[in-house]
Amino acid sequence: MRMTAIAKGFETGHRTEFSVEAEKAVLVSVALPGRPWVLETDPCDEIRGLTEAAGAKVVAELTQKRQEIHLATYIGSGKVNELKELVEASDADVVVFDNDLYPAQGRNLEKALGVKVLDRSELILDIFATRAQTLESRLQVELAQLEYSLPRLKNMWTHLSRQKGGGIGLRGPGETQLEEDRRLAGKRIGDLKEKIAEVQGRKEREVKSRREEFTVSLVGYTNAGKSQLMNTLTKAEVLVKNQMFSTLDTRTRQWHVKDFGKVLLSDTVGFIRELPHHLVASFKATLEEARQAKLLLHVVDASNPQAEQQILAVTAVLKELECDKNPTLLVLNKVDKVTDRSTLDVLLKHHPKAVTVSGLTGEGIDTLTDTVIEMLSRNFVDAEIVAATSNGKAIAYLNAHAEIYRQEYRDDDVIFRCVLSKHLVHHVQATGAKVTVLK
Ligand SMILES: Nc1nc2c(ncn2[C@@H]2O[C@H](COP(=O)(O)OP(=O)(O)OP(=O)(O)O)[C@@H](O)[C@H]2O)c(=O)[nH]1
Ligand SMILES: [Mg+2]
């Protein structure tokens, strides 16, 4: 089944086999020592949201607490039987695991249950595949899907070849087909990587060309309210939806910040805990704006009981993307929806520098704006720079990196008044120019 999916992917540019549109789904979430949240009041909350985002209808849910996974079927055999009964009673078409399965576990479960089994990564990849609109995100999703499927393909192949052990003359068309699929998949991965590297290079240059501008990126957990905040701040009309992964492509809009000037604000794809690693890697190009932003606004749904864990998940992804050194402001959003004030107080106690807002009602937006101005100004200085007219290095450097608002010549010197990123001051000084910080 997975192979057909891959073969199809070659023609259409994205996989459709795992699409769970209008199907009835049974959810399974397994609590393991590293996944404590499964024990909370609504353990299937997130996987339910994901399944619905993929277009399926949830008909039943099952949870199990385990110390370690069952190697063959992830859950124990008693639970497999219970799950089978549940599948039959609810006439389900698909079982969705909130955990990631080994390829063999997926196959064993499909055999035992008689229905399709998807794991968490496959489900997320499926949502991305059906949402990807631009060429860039389609390439990125296809690469992530192929990379996720390839080991599964390999595994199937070894399994078959072992079965046929020493089978000279027994090599059937099945195996040839598998080898062929594997070869094709490998080649396609290579082609995709090349194309994505091209996109990435173009994107990096494009974003770098805006380096003198004040660039701010909205990042955060999926459904945290990033797009809503973008609309409120810039009067843009990007899609806002109570659905996970509504936004896949980065959108940049001008934000006119009172008393400060023009800022470029970007809305980006949302993150999720246990985000498939391949997806993070292949979405680097889409997240280039965030990687090069002067300031990140980390948007949090403060009304979600799991807000703290979501903050941790986002921080982990930012680290993987090497964005963890960018100045970041934590924005506790959806305060209008917070019913229990004490949960907000706990969040503020852990993150005393955070600001509280509601992208929907506009509450707290002024404070957010003031803090953004303060943070952006803190990283930049107004400077007067005196360089000899023969100091080509300094002049080229300033033209490339500073926002020059006045330039005059005196004797053999050229005098610039400009706004410069603080950490660039010593680079300019290193060229022999004299830098005076004005404020
Ligand atoms: N009550 C309330 N709801 C909000 C607020 N901000 C956003 N929402 C709702 O939350 C849902 C998600 O909002 P989006 O702005 O699409 O979230 P996002 O972070 O862009 O989500 P993805 O693009 O899917 O990652 C929508 O139903 C919004 O109407 C807020 O301040 N208060
Ligand atoms: Mg969005």
TrEMBL record:
Q: Which cellular component appears as one GO term in the record?
A: cytoplasm
Q: Carries keyword tRNA-binding?
A: no
Tell me the residue numbers annotated for binding Mg(2+). S227, T247
Q: Which SUPFAM superfamilies does the UniProt record give?
A: P-loop containing nucleoside triphosphate hydrolases (SSF52540)
Cofactor(s) of this protein: Mg(2+)
The subcellular location is: Cytoplasm
Question: Source organism's superkingdom?
Answer: Bacteria
According to the entry, every stretch annotated as the Hflx-type G domain falls at 214-380
**Main location per UniProt?**
cytoplasm
Q: Which UniProt keywords apply?
A: Cytoplasm, GTP-binding, Magnesium, Metal-binding, Nucleotide-binding
User: Can you tell me which residues bind GTP?
Assistant: 220-227, 245-249, 267-270, 333-336, 358-360
| Signal peptide region | none
A GO term for molecular function = ribosome binding
The record, for InterPro entries, names: G_HFLX_dom, GTP-bd, GTP-bd_M, GTPase_HflX, GTPase_HflX_N, GTPase_HflX_N_sf, P-loop_NTPase, Small_GTP-bd
Q: What's the stated role of this polypeptide?
A: GTPase that associates with the 50S ribosomal subunit and may have a role during protein synthesis or ribosome biogenesis.
- Assembly and oligomerization: Monomer. Associates with the 50S ribosomal subunit.
Write out the similarity annotation: Belongs to the TRAFAC class OBG-HflX-like GTPase superfamily. HflX GTPase family.
Query: What's the protein name?
Result: GTPase HflX
Q: Which organism is it from?
A: Limnoglobus roseus
Q: What is the lineage of its organism?
A: Bacteria, Pseudomonadati, Planctomycetota, Planctomycetia, Gemmatales
